[in-house]
Amino acid sequence: MSAAVVLVDRPTPHVARLLINRPDKRNAIDHGVRRALTESLAALLVDATVRAIVFGGAQGVFSAGGDVPSMVGLTEAQARERMQHVHALCRLIAEAGVPVVSAVEGIGAGAAVGLALLGDRIVVGEGTKILFPFLKLGLAPDWGQLLTLPRRVGLPVVRRIFCDGAPVSGAEAYRIGLADTLVADAQVMTTAVAQAGELALLPREAFARMKARLNHPSASLAEELAREENDQAVCLLGDDFVEGHDAYVNKRTADFVALPGVKR
């Protein structure tokens, strides 16, 4: 029996980890990987015991990006179907109501970088190489990167990165804001898991609402204030605020995980 192309485990309490498992292909993302990621992620997002997710790749390599041979010879209908399959996964990641941390070990290229940018935090190593090969292949950037990357590093930097096609080192990724944390190569995964464990302790409802508003900015102050009203009308009446207020008054750390009714 062939090995699963996506491995799922629970490396620490309240954290689920998804690892792309095609080491012979440097964890390139093909239809099978996308399907497995989509199915696994959908299941995890309805599991109340999962409060954060880590994305990574097996054997110390994040991913070489999209599986290029699988893109050759498509009809227009097949090309559109492929992109729709990609976008279903993109939406799941971007709209996940829990924190998503990507451990970009070794090589992170193309589609895989898009996946990481759709999450909430990116950890890289000193030896990490991030690649954007789209224009060299005659393709436009996809996986939402023409939206997500400018939000992180700004338009001039994005134009340079995409047009130059040169690898971005881990240190450079951290310097320009493409990555949030830079560590030694051997510490990328453990750091990502540790950060996910910390993020898992955040109040789930408030985090999900904050993330949704950041992902979909208001068009006006009036719209933003209306959304604030709706969010706080829910949060102020919730158990998380009761716990947060009691912790504030009693000068202790709030425990949003141990609230009544919260599954461990």
What does this structure look like?
This protein has helices at residues 31-45, 76-94, 110-117, 145-153, 155-164, 170-176, 188-199, 204-215, 221-235, 239-249, and strands at 6-12, 15-20, 52-57, 100-104, 107-109, 121-125, 129-131, 168-169, 181-183. It is α/β, with parallel strands linked by helices and 264 residues long. The strands form two sheets. Strands 1-2-3-4-6-9 form a six-stranded mixed sheet, sandwiched between helices. Helix 1 links the parallel strand 2 and strand 3. The longest helix is centred in the N-terminal third of the chain and has 19 residues, at 76-94. The two termini are 33 Å apart.
Distance between the termini: 33 Å
Give the total of beta strands.
Answer: 9
Which value, in Å, is the CA radius of gyration?
19 Å
Mean pLDDT: 95
The number of helical segments is 10
What portion of residues belong to β-strands?
15-25%
Overall 3D shape: globular
**Helical/strand content category:** alpha/beta
How would you write the strand order of the largest sheet? 1-2-3-4-6-9
Unreliable stretches:
none
Major sheet attributes = 6 strands, mixed
Give the SSE string: EEHEHEEHEEHHEHEHHHH
**Helix content percent band:** 40-55%
